[in-house]
Amino acid sequence: MKKLLLPFFIVLLFAAFKAPRNSVKTVMGIVTDKNDKTPLAGVSVFSHDKKIGTSTDKGGRYIITIPEKEQSLSFEYIGYKPLTLKIKGTVLDVKLEKEMASLDEITALNYEKKAVAGAPGLRGTVSIRGINQSSIIMNAPPVNESLESYAAINENQFRNAIKNPLSTFSIDVDAASYTNVRRFINNGGLPPADAVRIEEMINYFDYDYPQPKGHDPINIVTEIADAPWNTSHKLVKIGLQGRKISTEKLPASNLVFLIDVSGSMNQANKLPLLVSSFKLLTDQLRSSDKVAIVVYAGNAGLVLPSTPGDQKIKIKDALDKLSAGGSTAGGQGIELAYKVASENFIKGGNNRVILATDGDFNVGESSDDDMEKLIERKRKTGVFLTTLGYGMGNYKDSKMEVLANKGNGNYAYIDNITEARKVLVNEFGGTLFTIAKDVKLQIEFNPSKVQSYRLIGYENRMLKAKDFNDDLKDAGELGSGHTVTALYEVIPVGIKSAFSGSIDDLKYQINTKPVISGNNKELLTVKLRYKQPDGKVSKLIEQPVIDNRIPFNKTTNNFRFSAAVAEFGMLLRESDFRQNSSFDQVIRNAQNAVGTDSEGYRSEFIKLAKSAKLLAKDLLSLENKTVLNEKN
Asked: Domain span at residue 78?
């Protein structure tokens, strides 16, 4: 009997140590025309069951992450014969053969080729992974990320502290960029450089700064240490902490859910996820709150008139009846939503439109400039705007950001129900309740200490020095309990650096050395202006910062973690200022700064950095292989 049981026990033991069921592998390659050997852009690449897919870039290259058990890949392209090949190793190059096509197919092919023209290399190619994803598109065609829209980012440069002693910018509490970047990486590709807004990645995370103690609703926290990517430079962290107000003490809300139900929203990770998200928000509402629902597709319409927040079943029933179809009359929807919000205005309350869409406005007022002017007009009514982005493929990030910036609101990208819970439940107060508006920062650098400086991120939030004291100049809003973090890289006086550049002697100024007044121990002074949510006159807060830097490994978890996120962003952007940055250093510094991570967001970041490291390595390997193929 023992002899019979022994083999059985060995089999069980072997099964216990098998690879996890959800283990994955990455396959890459180049798809070309079989006859002329030209690369084919926009070829659909599928797993066997078509639950996972991607498309080739303009060089015919693809990368796809699939379950380890997958044995074959399918390739489909209009005008070419479909092909299924067995997977042998990690590289699978493909040659597709042309077939006779109908006129409709040729027209569609030409349109598709135009759509993918200019795709930014392998950045942006996507595989929809069917493993542990709550928002998977079942049996849908692969996503073509080249149709997505991102505003160009020109990185902040180092500025000379003598010639430019002031750095002025609006705060940014948006966190959409991090979630969107996470979506790209989790789907097996690196994001386009312009999708990486470093300040939004940093501000995705909560930092346990001290709560304000005085009458001001904002507290300023600063810290200085060596920059991890260049230890001869300093890194200065400026943190803001908004006063946290408990939910029961928050003012009553007058909310209008403005929901895009156009045809582009007819995907599992768009309207169905949106409805689930708004149900979570509905559960947070009180009897003193009220909600209306406006939808728009070919036209705009009122689905639910303003309804008390404790009538949750009625609100959720209205959400459940939504379906997608038609074109996108975004301008009409915004007009109607603001009209409904104004008709139900609560004086002293939180009056807000919550726009949920993929940003693909294509009927009526559709250009970024048109939408910006519309929102600027509407914000004068005292109604704020929150934008929630959903989906992929035709996602218009640039437009979503413009709407939030100009609408006295914030912007979040929701890629799964967990992120919806973070934004609409865990950060309910910060997302929807403004405690200070038009918040601006102006940093004055001491030129006897600072040779030059660079603000990391915030490129689209920069202001002129004179804008700081101009109360008519719009700036960012701070919500209940929100934190804002900004990082400056500083080159101290006496350090030789190519970033500082050289300036010829001036002809009309003999004394080019700074005239020092005040405390020479100060590295810089932080000045902050803000208004009350219903105020028109700003208040000034001023705080000097003494040059007392400490070793990087002795800084707070907040400092080290925010530095790791900034370094990660520079690597993803392939920044000119990344210097000695590396994924290994990002991972190491983040691991040593996890601290109290009750929701697991920091731990998730570490996993994301590890995935990005592998993807960057795979991309480099594929590019090297392509170069060799071209030489041969």
From this structure: 24-132
Measure the CA–CA gap between 62 and 31, rounded to whole angstroms. Answer: 8
In angstroms, the CA 314 to CA 227 distance is: 54
Q: Which of 324, 320, 334 is nearest to 264 (CA)?
A: 324
Task: Tokens for 589, please give them.
Answer: 């510094």
CA 285 to chain centre: 27
> What is the tally of structural domains in the chain?
3
- Going by the DSSP 8-state scheme, the letter that residue 161 receives in this structure is T
Phi/psi at 448 (5° precision): -80, -15
Which tens digits make up the pLDDT trace of 506-537? 677 665 566 666 667 899 999 999 999 888 99
* Nearest residue to 28 via CA among 107, 93, 101, 117: 93
DSSP string for 125-142: ------SS-SS--TTPPP
Q: What is the DSSP string of 84-99?
A: EEE--SSB--EEE-B-
Are 461 and 438 in contact, with CB atoms under 8 Å apart? no
Pairwise CA distance, residues 425 & 322, whole Å:
22
In a shared domain, residues 474 and 592: yes
Per-residue model confidence as pLDDT tens digits over 370-379:
777 778 888 7
- Tell whether 443 and 571 lie within a shared domain: yes
Cβ(525)–Cβ(444) under 8 Å? yes
| Cβ(306)–Cβ(292) below 8 Å | yes
Same domain, 258 and 399: yes
Distance, CA of 228 to CA of 548 (rounded, Å): 17
Contacts of 628 (CB under 8 A, 6+ apart): none
Reported pTM:
0.73
User: Which DSSP category does 423 fall into?
Assistant: I
Structure tokens at 331: 């301008």
CATH no. for residue 83? 2.60.40.1120
